What we know:
Layout: H1 4-18, H2 58-65, H3 72-76, H4 86-89, E1 149-154, E2 158-159, E3 165-173, E4 179-188, E5 195-203, E6 217-218, E7 228-234, E8 240-241, E9 246-251, E10 258-266, E11 275-276, E12 279-285, E13 291-292, E14 294-299, E15 304-305, E16 312-318, H5 320-326, E17 331-339, E18 344-353, E19 356-363, E20 373-382, E21 387-394, E22 403-404, E23 415-421, E24 433-434, E25 437-438, H6 439-443, E26 447-448, E27 451-452, H7 453-456, H8 462-474, H9 482-491, H10 499-512, H11 516-526, H12 530-549, H13 554-569
Helix pairs in contact: 8-9, 10-11, 12-13
Bound molecules: 2-acetamido-2-deoxy-beta-D-glucopyranose (3 copies).
Amino acid sequence: MDDLSLITACLLLATCLAYPSYRDKIPNGYNVSHPCIDGDVWDGVGHENRRGGGVRNVFGKDFQLNGMVWDASLCNMDSDGDGKTNGVELGDPNCEWSMGSTPMYTTGLSHPGICDPFDSKLCDGKPSFVDCEDTSNKKCPVVEEPGTFNFTVRFPETPVPAKETTYICVLMELPHDKDYHLVAYDPVISNLEVMHHTLVFACEGVDEAPGPLMQPLECGDAMYSCRTIIALWGAGAGGQCLHEDMGILIGGTEGIKYAVMQHHWNNPELRTDYVDSSGMTFHLTPKLRPNNAGVLMIGQYDLNIPPGVLSYSETGSCHSECTKQIMDGPINIASVANHMHLLGKAQYTERIRDGYSIPLAVDAVYDYNTPVSHKHSTPILINPGDELKTTCRFESTSRSLTTTFGDATADEMCLAFITFYPKENMRTTECAAWKSLSSCELRFQTNRRGCDFVKMDNFSHPESQEIYSSVSSLCALGTCRKECLGYVRELKKHACFSGDVGSMRRAFGINYGEQRAEVIEWYSRFDSCDGELAIEKYKAMMSDEDINAGATYRPAIFVLTTMMLIISFF
Ligand SMILES: *[C@@H]1O[C@H](CO)[C@@H](O)[C@H](O)[C@H]1NC(C)=O
Ligand SMILES: *[C@@H]1O[C@H](CO)[C@@H](O)[C@H](O)[C@H]1NC(C)=O
Ligand SMILES: *[C@@H]1O[C@H](CO)[C@@H](O)[C@H](O)[C@H]1NC(C)=O
């Protein structure tokens, strides 16, 4: 038990014993090696992901077609086409093995779902899902150091609801008799079929438990405003070993004392028989490292991915002006994890300084089932005034409707989690964008592109009161009143109700506001004259064009006229 990979393997093994695993149903199921990394085991024998879950490899597909049983038929197949039958690869050349017995051979095995040797005539090179450089099982020396200790927090065994997406949270207490650094962690996964990801959110500045401990509750209120991500795992990933110059401060007077562990369970088949008790093992040391670590989230909240598109990109930036405001000094980036959902194909996170870009995390081929933490053993320096930006590329050919930002697997995300030190130089944990607006513009400025949010969100301020009540009294639902038209014609030019600021205020009010129904009704009144306003615009344009270009724009005008007719019809 002397390195992280072994620990992880044992945790997975314990799991698999608790829940009869597919690996028990094939000979040597726990001993199939990685085809190109000595000493590493390929736990998910039937999957493209070495840790299981997600897309099945050719052997996994044959196993499934065969009703998940090992018999002569599956044994005699050569699933990966490398000239060796599945039986030969798994040490059962005569196809005699039955569950629980010892296979004829327990050494000299090979992988039944990966054609190898890669350079042989039969194989067409290395399959794209095999990563020979994968270092995620490498050992984490600090775990062995004297003084380092661990504790494991697992959910009590909990039924998984019969719905596609569940976010389930438990509030946990961390040791706080003195200062510790969290230096490494490992996932403890009990039900790989449902576990999509785990996030651990620190409750910063909280000295008393904000709710009941270790009670699984659907997230939402059970987040208790705990927001700082301090540990993350995604299906396919292993544990994390933090950069040796930093640790996450736990306990003592300043450190984190409570945290919320959130599991995302994915149950698209709506099965009712799943239970889960996954969790994490945390490695702590009282020998504090030179720096406290923090995590910053960047990305784009406003996603509108059109259906049926082969390649669609979005970016989210934490602008240069923003980093000046949220940073009190330089930071060092030690690791970055990109995050999208099922449509995500590639993602690029970068630092931009004076027009020059340095990559922070490049997933040229992004796979939702195999999240990668991009480590920088020589940390990358970020100065106040540098821009942090992420670019996401999606493929939506499988969809017939627009995909938007959201928590469900079928929704999308475009985020990057940046682990850095020292934590003290960063005033926030999030600098994601809404279209071109960085969130610092929303949080640290009162005047955002001419819109005074404080005033506009203060319903007792005379100016905002005038705006809200005028729309409510002048504008009707479903019909355009003349008095409304005159009022909203001007209001739609107001900095708080136009452009990216207007669209952000609208989306947040409608989706996240406390009085959603009222907000939706208000915006329906506000929009009741949009048809008329569009016609005004079109008429103005037409008269301009008549002057400038005669009748050259007739076809465009015809299209516009038709559109107007359609709009006014509805
Ligand atoms: C796996 O292989 C090791 C030696 O490589 C052996 O000790 C162990 O018994 C094997 N496990 C199973 C389940 O066959
Ligand atoms: C936790 O620490 C105990 C005692 O030192 C050790 O036996 C165990 O293997 C450790 N567990 C993990 C998951 O590291
Ligand atoms: C809201 O506006 C009123 C009237 O101008 C003012 O007295 C009050 O302090 C404002 N509240 C906030 C929270 O700014």
